[in-house]
């Protein structure tokens, strides 16, 4: 016996059949989608309009969509299509089947330096494109770096990003504390692209070491370590690696 039409509609949007949930966000879920005709797999970010009520949230979503529309680069996740219904906003996006770089680091323990170098080069290449368009990400971390089927980096989650003018300083502190630049956590104005570069340095450390350079359960103590640049390079790192004693393990940022 066939299912009611309403049930079939609930499992598809536009030309895509919706599958399993592959992620959770502030405003909804991310589901795996499959194009009905081509069988191409996509990530469908479903934003529930009833959750986007505060002015700041509306601005955040609008800014993220605007930025994703602008950027086209091999190492930045692509936005293919936007479908709007009365209750939801569907962002049809490129699907990165390899999952988060975070999980890759955890599974490996630490990433061999030649491979870490390749990842880092791809992150910088994507970020260079972002900064060339006067856009700052402000939430770079392994959880926001996905891997495609060929283990290539895809930068995602531009929810905290912003557009800046040449020479403009920003003041808003955002992102994950473990990856935040000293000037940001100190409450000072900061050069937009430099805060992203600091986060990249922390990511590189996490890649080659398997743990974070700055970590503490107490946020105040964590900030003091970052401001004092209090970290050490393990002995197993080669002199060629531009990073700097063993720490328990990399953990999901707060």
From TrEMBL:
Endpoints of the signal sequence: none
Location of the Protein kinase domain: 16-254
Pfam family, one: Pkinase
KW Oxidoreductase (keyword) present: no
Residues that, per the record, bind ATP: 45
Keywords: ATP-binding, Kinase, Nucleotide-binding, Serine/threonine-protein kinase, Transferase
PROSITE patterns noted in UniProt: PROTEIN_KINASE_ATP, PROTEIN_KINASE_DOM, PROTEIN_KINASE_ST
Annotated GO MF terms: ATP binding; protein serine/threonine kinase activity
Tree of life domain: Eukaryota
Subunit field text: Monomer.
Name by which UniProt lists this protein: Protein kinase domain-containing protein
Naturally occurring in which organism (per UniProt): Effrenium voratum
